[in-house]
Amino acid sequence: MMALVIAAEAAAVRHHQPNNKMKTKSQSTIEYAVLIAVAVVVIIGMGLYIRRSVQANLKMTEMRINGVDWKFGKVTGGGGGGGDDGGEPPQPPPAQ
Description:
mainly alpha; 2 helices
């Protein structure tokens, strides 16, 4: 009879203890939530660098089309800019 009471008390104690399966499931859910949050932050951070890269490439293409040397800001002979060859202002014709 005493063994039956002890077994019943042990079952009641086990029933009130947190379920390991439930604890593991909750932990997995939290880990997935943290993983997704980190991935979103990384993607947002990379988006800034990608946007800057695209803007830099567009600026370099614009400068190349307009005939501006991107290192020094000088107008070069290429492109459709002004038609001069060195970026210097045109000289007036010599006086006669």
